[in-house]
Design goal:
The structure is a homodimer of 178-residue chains.
Chain A: E1 6-12, E2 17-22, E3 32-36, E4 40-47, E5 52-59, E6 64-68, E7 71-73, H1 80-92, E8 94-95, E9 98-105, E10 116-126, E11 137-142, H2 144-153, H3 159-170
Parallel strand pairs in A: 4-10
Antiparallel strand pairs in A: 1-2, 2-3, 4-7, 5-6, 5-11, 8-10, 9-10
Chain lengths: 178, 178
């Protein structure tokens, strides 16, 4: 398929749709199935103690408990920045001072149609509650050195969040410490 | 959802299935929908001229032409390493000498159930044909500096492939050159 001329929703859940895309100029080709969902946001948030805020939670898609950066979906009409602030506070109990957009990526060019907005948060402080308001998850603070160690052992292995570290490294805000 | 006890295929394409996952202990919760597909492989391949092999192609999911590392699916029973070698040759016309596994990541903990196998290829040389055998794509060779520049401008923006650069940087095989 070289172009997309028709789009048809062929399956729907409350969180995403499966879209069959076709090019009428190449009707011999089967449709291409893409997943349409709202954009993702992820925050690399560094506390005043120079630690990274992370979240541990059970993930049904992979049937395992993962260690990840705070992240979630943009709920239109909120902006990606507002979503990043909201997810950070809901998932960690911390509030961002300033947020810097590191970049806007494609999560999976082969299957997903949405975007991933990557932010760097500084001036991060504990909220009045100081605890996550979202259930079923636990906030973890790690030094950058320890997070790199967990990446190298495979304990920090969410590809989308390693991508955020690449963007941060390119801007001098992360070091892989080789 | 804290555990997964039942899994039901609710939609199927030739490339992936949508699986509804439920926890009978929490029947009040709606099922969780995950995408099940075969594992991904991606190769960071460096030529003898110290250039990175990349691929340009139209991607129906995002309806745009993207710049990416050579990548694809593992076709069982082939191993991830065999898939990496096959995809590299099919997409670039180059053959890997030695392949090193940089790591095995989760592409999207929120929605995808598969894994992403990340390889570093050295001793890369042109095959006898020397051209991609897969149609509709174009091989591009870039210096690491130029690839970093394109990452910073958003022209190299596939998150899963930026993640490969993070793994490579941690092993001293990539520098973001800040």
């Amino acid at each position: 398929m070289r172009r997309v001329h028709t789009r048809q929703t062929v399956f729907e859940t409350p969180w995403f749709e499966v879209i069959a895309k076709s090019d009428p100029d190449h009707q011999e080709e089967p449709p291409y199935y893409a997943i349409q969902t709202s954009d993702y946001v992820t925050v690399l948030a560094i506390t005043e103690a120079s630690e990274v805020l992370l979240v541990q939670q059970f993930r049904p898609a992979v049937e395992a408990t993962t260690l990840e950066l705070p992240s979630g979906h943009v709920d239109p009409p909120e902006t990606p920045e507002a979503a990043a602030r909201r997810e950070l506070e809901e998932e960690t109990g911390f509030i961002a001072g300033s947020l810097e957009l590191l970049g806007c990526l494609i999560p999976d060019t082969g299957r997903l149609s949405n975007r991933l907005w990557c932010f760097y948060a500084s001036g991060v402080r504990r909220s009045e509650n100081g605890v996550p308001t979202e259930g079923g998850l636990q906030c973890v603070c790690l030094s950058p050195l320890e997070l790199n160690r967990r990446m190298n052992t495979g304990a920090f292995d969410h590809a989308l969040h390693l991508a955020v570290l690449s963007l941060a490294a390119a801007k001098g805000k992360w070091s892989f410490g080789v």
